[in-house]
Amino acid sequence: MNQYVDLVKEYPILSAIIQFAVLGTFGDIISKWLQQRVIFLPYKFSILFLKMLEWAFLGICIKYAFIGFQGFVESLISHKLLPNLGLFGSAFSVSVVMNLQFGLLLVILHRFLDNLISKENNWKSIDKGMFSLVWFWIPAHTITFMLDKPYQIGLAAVWSVVLGIILGYYNREIKS
Fold first, then answer.
1. Which of 43, 59, 112, 117 has the most crowded Cβ, counting Cβ within 10 A?
2. Is the backbone of residue 86 left (phi > 0), alpha (psi -120 to 50) or beta?
């Protein structure tokens, strides 16, 4: 575990890129497996590569958002515009402000990049993606922001796998 922490501290952006490229893409794949109820390679290798690049880019954005929004909440507390709420309260505050501001942009950006990769214009159910900020991401990131900083991006990447499992399960195709 010390090697992981050292790697994340030494290479914060590169480690975010790798973790999201691997785990975010894996979450997409698991979602397809669950939707179609079969284990298979849902994307051609060229699309898989583009998906990994998409998740790598999103990982960079998320890393910067984590740092920025934690600093934002810390600044509000230091200027007495928000009370010191302790570990849980601060984590919840960061999660709420990040997801309700940056999260909306990220949902739209993620869908835009998915559409670019798939050469589609699919904005169907984008509202469900935005709603996931409330029912999934705010609670998930509250837990994330309670961890020491070196573990936060790794857990956020794991959450993308968890959401892939949830969405895949609830979007299963009906077998006749």
1. 59
2. left
Q: For residue range 56-92, list pLDDT tens digits in order.
A: 999 999 999 999 999 999 999 999 999 999 999 999 9
